[in-house]
Amino acid sequence: MKQNYFMWILAGVVITMIILVIALIIFGVNLLVNSLKPISINTPAPIVNEQPVIISKTVSKFATDAGVLKLREDINKLRSDIDSVDIFEPQLSPPNIDLNIAITPAD
Amino acid sequence: MMKYFLALLLIFFSVTPAFADYNSAYNDYTFNSQKYRSSYNEYQIAKSTYSTYKTLTSKVDAVKKLKTVLQNRNKVMSSYYDLLQEKLLATPGIPEDSKNTFFKMKESEKVWMAEHEKKIDAAGSLEDLDLASADFEGRYPQMASETKQAVNMVLLAKESALSSRWDILANDVSSKLKEISATGENTALSERDVVSARNKKELAQAKITAALKADLFETQQRLTEANQYLREGLNYLSEIIKNITG
Question: What is the pTM of this model?
Answer without folding.
Answer: 0.74
